[in-house]
Amino acid sequence: MATPRIRSVIVTGGASGLGKIMSGYFAARGDIVTILDVDETNGPAVAAELETPDGSEAVRFRKCDISSWEEQAAAFRVVYEDVGYVDVVVANAGVSEGGRSWVVPPFPSATETGANRGEPEEPRLKVLDVNLVGNVYSVKLALHYMQLNTPDTTTGLRGSIICTASNAGLYPFPPQPLYAASKHAIIGLVRSLGPVYGQTHIGIRINALAPAVLKTNIAGKNALFTNMVVTPPSTLIAGLERLLVDTSLNGQVAEIHGENITLRPPHEIVDADSRHNLEEFSRFGYGQ
């Protein structure tokens, strides 16, 4: 029997926060892990920290701004040329809006009413450039390189994509509505692509993690967590592992909360007419 090849994994945003936790999980399993992250100051040190004891250099770091198609395409190309294949992509990189969202008006706002408002400033949309556009780029590149893989003889699968959404993509999140919008979009992307990518001739699974509150650098000061119920990293890893191991899961969203992993189905379809139309979209929406 042939020895299974070592799995090649790409984790975007893997130099800190949830990405570092997940990179550590893959490294501990002996996978070849490539961390793509904009943080070139700490990234190499994180890769060295997560390195396997045998010194096989299985954890690599490459500076990459995922909001740039050129940078991300080049990074994926290097991984493919160095390793020869890509098996798992964790599209994880993300940023917050930083402080009060510009969408949310100051309170109280007596000096910014009526004629005193002045001209509007151009919206800051980095949170969408990274959390949505950058992760769409990751999915596109994962699709390209995974389709070069030979299907698994047992499952017929070529690879697995896992996107980091958030429970802010499942519920209203007034402090940062653009962050919430980006995470809602990732959930919609995953649910829409699952049935397509799961077809036999493609053979790729795509699922999403929707974590609740975990202590990460994206949230800023630790004081923010004082009154929060914090989910431990072990639940995140358990959810990640479930999405990786259960090959029946595709287009699914796993909410990670407390000690629990809950698969969250889409909204119930409102009526028979809508069900009919959605089935029609599914029938002719691909390959026409």
From TrEMBL:
Keywords carried by this UniProt record: NADP, Oxidoreductase
Listed SUPFAM superfamilies: NAD(P)-binding Rossmann-fold domains
Oxidoreductase keyword on record: yes
Keyword Oxidoreductase applies: yes
InterPro entries: NAD(P)-bd_dom_sf (IPR036291), Sc_DH/Rdtase_CS (IPR020904), SDR_fam (IPR002347)
Family: Belongs to the short-chain dehydrogenases/reductases (SDR) family.
Protein name (record): Uncharacterized protein
Organism (species): Xylaria flabelliformis
